[in-house]
Specification:
This protein is an all-beta fold and 123 residues long. The strands form two sheets. Strands 2, 4, 5, 6, 9, 10 and 11 form a seven-stranded mixed β-sheet that branches. Strands 1-3-8-7 form a four-stranded antiparallel β-sheet, with no helix packed on it. A hairpin with a 4-residue loop joins strand 7 and strand 8. The chain is globular. The N and C termini lie far apart (40 Å). The model has no long low-confidence stretch (mean pLDDT 94).
Amino acid sequence: QLQFVESGGGLVQPGGSLRLSCAASGFTLDYYVIGWFRQAPGKEREGVSCISSSDGSTYYADSVKGRFTISRDIAKNTVYLQMNSLKPEDTAVYYCAARVSAIVVTSTAYAYWGQGTQVTVSS
């Protein structure tokens, strides 16, 4: 059974950093695109960053470029999202998700989802 366990969320002050982890079980990352999405209260779920495990290609939303870095550890079957220079507008529940084939930013294109981890940026 394909599952994700997300971790690393929490409360951080503006300008701070967090690293989110998405540990996969029941499948290997090799043939999947893994995406990080976030959803703030009252807002639609948006794509933050994606990585293709086959070739390492990545995508970043304009709002996080230069601040967030996505990476993968194939041996640990885990994808990470390093988040630096966090802003209050980054506050949301962050989800990782998987799909086969190419990077797509639309959340409906992803069939497998984790339970989410809360990130709160506040002073």
